[in-house]
Amino acid sequence: MGEPGQKSLWVMTQQQLDNVAELMHLDPRIHAILRHCKRVMEVSIPVKMDDGSLKVFTGWRVHHNLARGPAKGGVRYSPTLTLEEVKGLAMLMTWKCAVVDIPYGGAKGGVVCNPSELSDGELERLTRRYTTELILLLGPEKDIPAPDLGTDERIMAWMMDTYSMNVGYSVPGVVTGKPVNIGGSRGRREAPGRSVAICVEEAAARLGIRLEDARVVVQGFGKVGSVVALLLHSLGCKIVAVSDVKGGIYNPQGLNPVKLMSHKRQTKTVSDYKEGDYVTNEELLGLPCDILIPAAIEGMITEKNADKIRARLIVEAANGPITPEADTILRDRGIFIVPDILANAGGVVVSYFEWVQDIQQFFWTEQEVNERLRQVIKRAFGEVWEVMRERGVDMRTAAYILAISRVAEAIKMRGIYP
Ligand code: NAD
Hints:
Elements: H1 9-23, H2 28-34, E1 39-48, E2 54-65, E3 71-78, H3 83-99, E4 105-112, H4 120-133, E5 143-147, H5 153-167, H6 191-207, E6 215-219, H7 223-234, E7 238-244, E8 247-255, H8 257-267, E9 277-279, H9 281-285, E10 291-294, E11 313-315, H10 324-332, E12 336-338, H11 340-343, H12 346-360, H13 366-391, H14 395-414
Parallel strand pairs: 3-4, 3-5, 6-7, 6-10, 10-11, 11-12
Antiparallel strand pairs: 1-2, 2-4, 7-8, 8-9
Helix pairs in contact: 1-3, 3-14, 4-5, 6-7, 6-12, 6-13, 12-13, 13-14
């Protein structure tokens, strides 16, 4: 984020809103509201460190817009986190929840810290104090955090327990992404990858791409990318290349993602897998294929490499993997792109299912979770596709138009208080 001269995520998300607002002739009063975050809470978090010293960390929780429901969004622990980044991510959550039509507003939170440098005890004390500082905002009908970069199931369990200790009874619905035995949902871990695979099916059917033997390249064989590779393989696709931060592996005959998973468990990387040829991440992006899944980190496809891409379809598993400049180049070249806010929304959809199950204290089977997820993503994909056709825009713009119009409608119906 913070490099000199570089626009912050907040400025970029505001600009994206401005562009779409103009295109859809958004009411300027609603536009003005949406350019701001509803509330920002900054907290300082004193933590007793293991060596006896005391360190004060800074954290935030930001609510962008709550017209459609309680605040939903992850908690990020990162040494480079800034308030501008948290605000941008909160706005993106408003759009992500709206595009898949789940009844939440957008939020995000985080603490400036490096979790890999903290002991388990320090991490727990930091998490519990952060949760307590936010207690005024939190609650299953108010604000429901979830894991994000640098946080996981264990941290969600501590947040849930801390909130419950403060109010005096167990409240599993105050966070999502918890372990299953304390109110987590089956199928949540695989959900972002699963929604990407559903979007591949939906797009392929409309674009006339046969999934049997379709060649797929996955950049980033992590939590999301590995699930996408497994699911697409089971649909008959040929996974011709995968990679991680150390590089990738290419085999035009197809790789077996189940074997790749067990290889990765042993050596911690896929780049030294023997049944294929080593490629760099840059070379991987230029490989001949039908479907490209960027599932690593943001900003991997830029104006420098966009003209080398040889896929027909790109489904964004990572958040923001394509820069705006590259997006234009790819669109001009006729490459169809399914945007991140739709493709990887499975995570927040199953978070919503987790919250519903917690509130009802009635838990679903994995099959029920997956079927309901498919319904939500299929419907959302179809709705975005229709907006794309009606307005003659690309899928990303269509997803934003749909999301922003849903939020705008909710603000209008509720009225501007007082
Ligand atoms: P992860 O850390 O499990 O996996 C990331 C993978 O990308 C790893 O294989 C890593 O080695 C690789 N990678 C990292 N830097 C790279 C680089 N410079 N070049 C090539 N590969 C690189 O993370 P994840 O949870 O799978 O998340 C991947 C993306 O999906 C992120 O953009 C994340 O924001 C997004 N996402 C994650 C979730 C979720 O619930 N996990 C939900 C929605 C979106």
